[in-house]
């Protein structure tokens, strides 16, 4: 659904017509939509790993992953502000994507011991 929205004129209709976004912001928003396109799939993967950790009743890894998420989000945003070469919407979208990926990698790392199959 998100791909259909992002890749078709439906996005322009929504951004310009429904939300009344100024015309000069529409291209910026369209690019940022492409940057965050993987987020729905990443959210499902994140839920899977969190579910494995909760099922194992070892939930510290979830708290750690939130810290990793916040640290990554803050670091990428700060680097984008300091560098100052890209519009803020691009930096924010990229920061969100990279923070999600970092959190998932941490959840994967913490859940690997729970994913091992039981010996027969």
Biggest sheet details: none
* Mean pLDDT score: 90
Q: Radius of gyration, Cα only, in angstroms?
A: 18 Å
C-alpha geometry = flat
* N→C terminal distance: 42 Å
Low-pLDDT ranges = none
Helix- and strand-based class? mainly alpha
Pattern of helices and strands: HHHHHH
Annotation, overall tally of beta strands: 0
Q: What's the tally of helices?
A: 6
* Fraction of helical residues: over 70%
Estimate what percentage of residues fall within beta strands: under 5%
Explain this structure to me?
By secondary structure, this protein is an all-alpha fold. The chain has six helices and no strands. Helix 3 packs parallel to helix 6 and helix 4 runs parallel beside helix 6. 17% of the residues are buried. The model has no long low-confidence stretch (mean pLDDT 90).
């Amino acid at each position: 659904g998100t791909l259909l929205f992002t890749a078709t004129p439906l996005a322009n209709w929504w951004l310009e017509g429904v939300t009344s976004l100024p015309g000069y912001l529409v291209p910026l928003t369209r690019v940022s939509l492409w940057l965050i396109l993987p987020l729905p799939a990443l959210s499902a993967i994140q839920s899977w790993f969190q579910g494995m950790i909760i099922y194992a009743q070892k939930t510290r890894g979830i708290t750690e992953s939130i810290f990793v998420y916040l640290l990554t989000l803050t670091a990428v945003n700060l680097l984008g502000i300091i560098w100052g070469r890209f519009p803020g919407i691009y930096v924010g979208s990229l920061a969100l994507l990279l923070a999600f990926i970092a959190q998932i990698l941490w959840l994967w790392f913490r859940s690997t011991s729970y994913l091992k199959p039981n010996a027969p």
